[in-house]
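Tokens for Flagellar biosynthetic protein FliQ. Go.
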Amino acid sequence: MDPQAVLTLGQQAMFTLLMVAAPVLGAVLVVGLVVSLFQALTQINEATLSFVPKLLAAVAVLVIVGPWMLTTLVEFIRRVLLALPSYAV
């Protein structure tokens, strides 16, 4: 396996990881900003007020986007496993 193939495979893996993690991270970021703004406006400093909505948002996004995420990861792993014989040369 030459260094170029390793770098290409690593780049594809990082891109797939970023693409799969983006919906959950984006939803948690937006909910966190909204909750922080709410806490700043009302001066309520409760730790669970920040944690619970983020957790619920992450679960909701995983329920909605989960099948796509799983399909994307399975397709990437399938491509890598099918390409292994060509890398062994």
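The first helix runs from residue 3 to 42.
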